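Hey team,

Filing this mostly as a record. A colleague (T.K.) asked me to run one chain through the structure pipeline before their review meeting, and I want the input and output archived in the tracker in case anyone asks later how it was produced. No errors, nothing strange. Just documentation.

Input sequence:
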Amino acid sequence: MSVRVPKYRLHKGSGQALVQINGQRIYLGVYESAESKEKYRRIVADGWNRRRHRPSPAEATNPATASR
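Output structure:
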């Protein structure tokens, strides 16, 4: 299964940058600004770290393997 990185996008109506994760739009500030790009990097990295540390379905159903 491949994982797609959410896109850094422009909300044309407001001129703001946004990223959409799990159907939720997160507005980042002025499009192409250093601040909005930094927020985007933090949000994507945080989501990636959470995804990597989530227990697999096998670990979730077998508590003995989850404690390793």
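Quick notes for T.K.: The chain has a mean pLDDT of 83. Residues 34-53 form the longest helix (20 residues).
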